[in-house]
Amino acid sequence: MSQFAGCLISHEHGDHCKAIKDVLKAGIDCYMSPGTAGAIGIFHHRIKPVRAKQPFKIGSWSIMPFDVQHDVAEPYGFLLANEDGDKLLFATDTYYIKYKFPGLTHIMVECNYSNEILNENIESGRTPLFMKKRLLQSHFSLENVKEFLKANDLSRVQEIWLLHLSESNSDEKLFKEDIMKLTGKVVYIP
């Protein structure tokens, strides 16, 4: 843990901030929106609230938090840039990204579900209907990821990571092939 200069927290859901107490205990500053800090409810001198579209630095990285759309207090995505010209976009748990990002070299973005798979699962009863509304208003679909990628200049992108795939409403192989075909880039799914 001593090699970490900081920790970025996108929002307060447990699967995104579960280890915050351990991270703080290890002496690592945690950066998040004021809304996320309040929702987490931990008061600690290493919790650093940051504002959307106001850059800050951690080590040699300049970080620009930006607002995303999710069903929580004040979620963020992050654009990280270093002096070597690397630009990493990280965005998860959002159904839409309203910004364009010039000069990206790496993309880590949620690709939670496919509308087609979700609808098939609802029809067959594998996924309850109420889940559809929540997914549509809180998570990035394959279709919206494609639109986001088309809207951005990918000429410098070296790799794309698809994150946060749904266990039942996604298809890892299909998603990877679709994004590779669309972008011509290397695609990873952790």
TrEMBL record:
Metallo-beta-lactamase domain ranges (all copies): 6-99
Organism, scientific name: Bacillus spizizenii (strain DSM 15029 / JCM 12233 / NBRC 101239 / NRRL B-23049 / TU-B-10) (Bacillus subtilis subsp. spizizenii)
Classification via InterPro entries: Metallo-B-lactamas, RibonucZ/Hydroxyglut_hydro, WalJ/YycJ-like
Protein name in the entry: Metallo-beta-lactamase domain-containing protein
